[in-house]
Specification:
binds magnesium ion, about 525 residues, 24 helices, two-stranded antiparallel sheet, about 45% helix, globular, binds adenosine-5'-triphosphate
């Protein structure tokens, strides 16, 4: 049987994994059973990147709000009627916690009547088989996968399948969702689902999509890996105009969006975790009128996304201004400024900066200046005993990097000259070996000889594990790349970012003892 907890630990980003722990603790303390559900499970199993965490509790998650906040989560939105809480977990991880519920659709176009239910009942109200699974996070059954519609088989077959014939009639927003998932994963609709989809389209079920569902579908675009492709598919199917009547793919700044996604990937490869969502929305709607944009924003439930999207230009302008001022007069100062800026803003400004100097500084920050780190003479630093074990090491490494950045240390000799005064005194010599003929004395003499510099037996000092100044320490990667062809989950571990700094290095070999060993030669 697959070990889904292991898969989860392997596939989630460190922030997401911590988030699971946080929600788990809060739910447990409140005595509510908790499950990881929906897209999170689908993506865990299929190997696609997990964009947000969907939790379901048996109980009312609105009651968890205070405890969630106390534990460090931010409440981004609340849907009272559906009893769903949208949260931001520390480190950019998005999540929602919904109540396990039944939904009864009594009238077309009216919201369903919702009632608390068990997780098993809840899974029956879901959209597609691949989204109708739950992983227990509860003591006693932790790791148990509930998969009543055999979603794992449909993941294997790469098929999108509704749970029952009335699915699109009950909630026509599933038409948009079906297209979105089909576009994202390049999975077709299963034959019968396709037939129901076509019938629903012809029957104009889409006229009955709820406004709240429209808001969800708009927001979902922000987190696609290839948003333009999804937008084009929505447009082709006639759904984009439902999200906004003036929205077409021609309103998208395709080149800006393309550049954004490229730079985002570049940053992810460097170990940053920028939330590209607000910038994606900016480019997707670049040529829409302000009033259309305002209308889209009104419909989005997560206000943190809306605010970040609204403020993105102003914040970028502020950063650009600072990058042109004294604060960024030198490469080292620019580095410090950008290291403290939000990765989202660096990302957006990298693509939108109008001033060449700003553009160049960001480019240097993401590429050229990183190569300067290679000029830090780590082996020589290790020989000088300037290793991560030294309390002053982070500062020394930082200072040398800053000086190198500014071209103030122009050669290795100059760099070493700068470093030498920071070298700690060598450790005291080991006690002199005892005289005598016994085997112990002979062994001691041999050990001493091996430590003597120049001796054939002498060990070379070990080079400290690559240590780069703290200034270069980026955050861990948030999302693994979306694989073209997802492999089984276990093989999809996101590439670890290169660990920049402060790995305790192995101690270098000790210097030769001051006294010569005086073991007598054997005859
Ligand atoms: P994404 O990767 O875009 O987040 P998702 O499947 O997780 O995809 P969400 O909008 O986050 O989509 O919804 C979480 C889960 O809630 C879904 O997987 C699905 O089980 C359920 N769900 C969401 N919208 C609907 C809907 N309109 N009808 C039925 N179930 C839905
Ligand atoms: Mg989701």
């Amino acid at each position: 049987m697959a070990d889904y907890i292991y898969t989860m630990e392997l596939r989630l980003t460190p922030d997401q994994l911590k988030g699971v722990g946080l929600v788990q603790d809060v739910a447990r303390a409140a005595g509510m059973n908790l499950y990881l559900t929906g897209g999170a499970i689908r993506d865990l199993i299929s190997g696609f990147s997990i964009r947000d965490l969907d939790f379901t509790v048996q109980g009312n998650p609105l009651k968890l709000q205070k405890d969630l906040e106390k534990a460090g989560a931010k409440i981004a939105a609340v849907e009272e009627d559906m009893r769903t809480v949208f949260i931001s977990l520390p480190g950019n991880a998005r999540a929602e916690i919904s109540m396990a519920r039944t939904e009864q659709y009594e009238k077309t176009g009216k919201p369903p009547v919702v009632a608390p239910a068990t997780i098993h009942e809840d899974l029956r109200r879901r959209d597609f088989t691949v989204n109708a699974m739950a992983l227990s996070l509860n003591e006693g059954s932790r790791g148990l996968l509930l998969d009543p519609f055999n979603g794992t088989a449909d993941i294997e077959a790469k098929l999108i399948r509704i749970l029952h014939n009335y699915s699109f009639l009950e909630d026509p927003s599933r038409l948009i969702r079906a297209t979105r998932f089909a576009a994202r994963f390049h999975w077709p609709l299963e034959e019968r689902t396709q037939a129901r989809y076509d019938a629903a389209k012809e029957g104009k079920y889409s006229d009955y999509i709820l406004r709240s569902s429209i808001g969800h579908e708009i927001a979902a675009l922000a987190h696609e890996d290839d948003p333009l492709h999804v937008v084009k598919m929505l447009e082709k199917e006639g759904w984009l105009e439902i999200l906004n009547s003036h929205w077409t793919s021609a309103k998208v700044d395709a080149s800006g969006l393309g550049q954004l996604m490229k730079t985002r990937q570049q940053m992810v490869d460097l170990g940053y975790a920028p939330d590209a969502g607000p910038a994606v929305m900016y480019f997707l709607t670049s040529r829409l009128s302000n009033s259309d944009i305002a209308e889209l924003q009104r419909l989005i439930p997560r206000k943190d996304l809306v605010e970040a999207w609204r403020d993105i230009e102003d914040h970028a302008k502020e950063l650009a201004k600072r990058l042109m001022g004294k604060e960024a007069a030198t490469p080292s100062r620019t580095w410090t400024l950008l290291s403290a800026a939000r990765p989202e803003m660096i990302l957006f400004l990298a693509v939108t900066a109008r001033q060449q100097v700003v553009e160049q500084k960001i480019k240097n920050y993401l590429t050229k200046w990183r190569q300067v780190q290679q000029k830090i003479p780590l082996p020589e630093m290790t020989e000088l005993l300037i290793t991560p074990q030294l309390p002053a090491y982070p500062k020394i490494a930082h200072d040398v990097f800053m000086l190198l950045l500014d071209g103030k240390l122009r050669s290795r000799t100059e760099t070493l000259k700068f470093l030498k005064p920071f070298a700690p005194p060598p450790p005291p010599p080991p006690p002199a070996p005892r005289r005598g003929r016994g085997p112990k004395a002979v062994a001691e003499a041999a050990a001493a000889a091996s430590a003597k510099p120049g001796s054939k037996l002498a060990k070379k000092p070990k080079v400290a594990a690559v240590a780069v100044p703290a200034v270069a320490a980026p955050k861990p990667v948030a999302k693994p790349k979306v694989p073209e062809k997802p492999k089984p989950a276990r093989t999809q571990k996101p590439a670890k970012p290169t660990k920049p700094a402060h790995k305790p290095a192995k101690k270098p070999a000790r210097k030769a003892p001051a006294k010569k060993a005086k073991g007598k030669k054997r005859r």
